[in-house]
Amino acid sequence: MRRAGGVMLSQLALDREQSTPLYRQLYLQLRQLILNGVLPPGCRLPSTRTLAKELDVSRITVISVFDQLLAEGFLISQAGSGTYVNAEVQHQVQQIPSNRNPIPRVSGWSLAMSRRSQRYTKIGKKTWYDYPNCFVPSSPAFDQFPRQVWNKLHNRYLHHPGIELLSYGDSRGYEPLREALVDYLRDVRGLVCRKENIVVVTGATQAINYLGWLLLDAGDVVWMEDPGHVAARLAFSGTGARVLPVPIDSQGIDVGYAETVLPQAKLLFSTPSRQHPLCITMPMQRRLELLQWAARADAWVIEDDCESELYFHGRPPNALYTLDPNSRVIYVGTLSKVMFPGLRLGYVVMPEELVEAWCALCTVMDRPPPNFTQAVVADFMAEGHLISHIRRMRELYAGRQQRLVALLQQHCGDFFELQQAQAGLQLLAWLPPGLDDRQVSEAILQEGVDAYPLSHWSVNPNPRGALLLGFAGVPEAEMQRGVKAMARALRRQGWLS
Ligand SMILES: Cc1ncc(COP(=O)(O)O)c(C=O)c1O
């Protein structure tokens, strides 16, 4: 913990009423902070002048204390650099005693927390560093991102950030980015809108959560694709809405089934251009059916369009938003797939009438995403780098998919029925009927390889098991290793001869 200027040492408290001299109090407290590890080895202390000023004591007092701690080996001094906690005291450091009582728990979760939180516990993920272990879905090729261009654009703002980058900025997002998004959406998704319709978010996940808060009351019905986007299902149920699974047929979400069998919905969530995770493209007839229902029911449709830009051949179908004359569709896009997920930027296109309410909600929940990042991305888009990157990635991912198919056929024969993707980052590998995909996924994981089971996205059981295999972020050597490990796992279980 080297910190320019030294740590703040807010734990120090000198009592002028005590008979113990200030010098001794300061010495004992600093030594204790070092011994119990609050000041770890290598930690830089503030200068004696700064500390004396902050504690309102004479500099001589602080110098004497530092001298004693230096003499005892608790501190070391580096000429011209400062005073540090000596790394040698590490072996003396005791654990900080924990004197807190644990929070009482019922069935593994704390009583003191909301019911909403209980829904989230099972899926909690502390880190996402398993990216891009093969074959994690939704993972782009990190190594192919044009870092030089990216760094150059960063430098443009790094040295002279204007006030618009240092302040909270506009709740709708940085204006030049919204302008760049208008051009991008028209060009890439055939979606015509104005910058006044766009808000920038930290990703589709935030967008979906905010839309849940904005549009739903407890008890409202949501029709949700099943299998479908897990985070969206949980986000909506977190609002207290009744989230009802709607099956996917060969054309996408089965609106006819929902209308006949389920209570009327206030909101429908769909991934029409590329159903997640079944990779189905919704044909025009079903799109029109869906929009007609939304108009009849006066319901909202959230269109999550997360990877349609990455179409391998020909042109992707235009966004559902473009067909909607009644302003029922709210379009959610993300840069996580076409750039990288750590960027944390996405966008929502919504009827202008909703924008003011959205901004009010944002003011309560958070502030807009970092303006600095938004400015860099605005330039990245406006100068054509994003389009070039997408073109390159389309080609790369199409090639990687072909390679994965060839390797799977070579090492696993016809064990899988492969459903190749027309777009995006993953394909579906259907299992022989009767095999449980969670069991298969678990066996493959034992070999250190991720192959997510389709059931992960499902509420109701699927008629047939499958694995969703991400290929886009997996380079050749890694892919070979992964497929061989997969074949080994299948053989070990006796599923593959
Ligand atoms: C269906 C779907 N939509 C959107 C996203 C992107 O989420 P975010 O923009 O928050 O990274 C994902 C991420 O994997 C996804 O699976």
UniProtKB/TrEMBL annotation:
<comment type="similarity">
    <text>In the C-terminal section; belongs to the class-I pyridoxal-phosphate-dependent aminotransferase family.</text>
</comment>
<dbReference type="InterPro" id="IPR051446">
    <property type="entry name" value="HTH_trans_reg/aminotransferase"/>
</dbReference>
<dbReference type="InterPro" id="IPR015421">
    <property type="entry name" value="PyrdxlP-dep_Trfase_major"/>
</dbReference>
<keyword id="KW-0032">Aminotransferase</keyword>
<keyword id="KW-0805">Transcription regulation</keyword>
<dbReference type="Pfam" id="PF00392">
    <property type="entry name" value="GntR"/>
</dbReference>
<keyword id="KW-0808">Transferase</keyword>
<dbReference type="Pfam" id="PF00155">
    <property type="entry name" value="Aminotran_1_2"/>
</dbReference>
<dbReference type="InterPro" id="IPR036390">
    <property type="entry name" value="WH_DNA-bd_sf"/>
</dbReference>
<protein>
    <submittedName>
        <fullName>PLP-dependent aminotransferase family protein</fullName>
    </submittedName>
</protein>
<dbReference type="InterPro" id="IPR004839">
    <property type="entry name" value="Aminotransferase_I/II_large"/>
</dbReference>
<keyword id="KW-0663">Pyridoxal phosphate</keyword>
<feature type="domain" description="HTH gntR-type">
    <location>
        <begin position="20"/>
        <end position="88"/>
    </location>
</feature>
<dbReference type="InterPro" id="IPR015424">
    <property type="entry name" value="PyrdxlP-dep_Trfase"/>
</dbReference>
<dbReference type="GO" id="GO:0008483">
    <property type="term" value="F:transaminase activity"/>
</dbReference>
<keyword id="KW-0238">DNA-binding</keyword>
<keyword id="KW-0804">Transcription</keyword>
<dbReference type="InterPro" id="IPR036388">
    <property type="entry name" value="WH-like_DNA-bd_sf"/>
</dbReference>
<dbReference type="InterPro" id="IPR000524">
    <property type="entry name" value="Tscrpt_reg_HTH_GntR"/>
</dbReference>
